[in-house]
Design brief:
By secondary structure, the protein is mainly α. It has one domain. It is 44% helix and 9% strand. It is built from seven helices and four strands. A two-stranded antiparallel sheet has the order 1-2. Strand 1 and strand 2 form a beta hairpin.
């Protein structure tokens, strides 16, 4: 990459940084009535906490607090163990996932600078030691609310981790502002169509246990 191309890339990344925060701030204001209604509904159905918080790795593996609206209860069996996810997922939680409203708190992550609107989805901290060196390259950029892997199969791809990570790394290597705009446009279409929300017979994605 020559100096001219490097300057263009740096400027594009600056534009992305500014747009992320600007759009997140506007979206938080625009969706504030929906956020309030969802928060009240969760509180009435499940009590507190309303927002699910979990440590996730961001750019370069830096750990941050990841936010989502809570979709499952904390019900346990007789021995104090949490019931399977499928049994704890509530009707309102299923609706929030189907409409992607559970992702709204991540706009605060974007505003804080933990995430971007577009980038590889932040996964569990324990996965960090399970990635191959190539797969770990997904952390070279900021994680996103949506990403290239999500618009090419959305959560169904969680059943095929190697393909998901291949798409994440492809995004890292081919990033541009136009690609981000394309991903956002495709995401809107998927959300409105409510397609490919989750794996069949799974409330949450299967765990990534490493490469064979």
């Amino acid at each position: 990459m020559n100096n001219h191309q490097s300057l263009i890339t740096k400027f594009a990344k600056l534009v992305k940084w500014v747009l992320d925060r600007l759009v997140a701030a506007i979206a938080l204001l625009a969706f504030s009535p929906a956020i309030l209604i969802v928060a009240i509904a969760i509180y009435m159905r499940m009590g507190q906490p309303i927002v699910f918080t979990q440590p996730r790795p961001g750019k370069d593996g830096r750990i941050f607090s990841f936010y989502k609206f809570r979709t499952m209860t904390s019900d346990c069996d007789g021995e104090g163990n949490l019931l399977p996810d499928e049994q704890r997922l509530t009707a309102i939680g299923e609706f929030l996932r189907r409409t992607s409203l559970d992702e709204l708190p991540q706009l605060w992550n974007v505003l804080k600078g933990d995430m971007s609107l577009v980038g590889p989805r932040p996964l569990l901290v324990r996965y960090l030691e399970r990635y191959s060196p190539e797969q770990a390259r997904r952390h070279e950029v900021m994680p996103g609310i949506t990403g290239w892997a999500q618009v090419n199969g959305r959560r169904l791809l969680d059943a095929n981790w190697s393909e998901k990570f291949r798409l994440d790394v492809w995004y890292v290597d081919h990033w541009s502002l136009w690609l981000d705009l394309k991903i956002l446009w495709l995401t809107v279409g998927q959300v409105l169509g409510q397609k490919e929300i989750s794996q069949a017979n799974h409330a949450t994605s299967e765990e990534f246990k490493g490469n064979e």
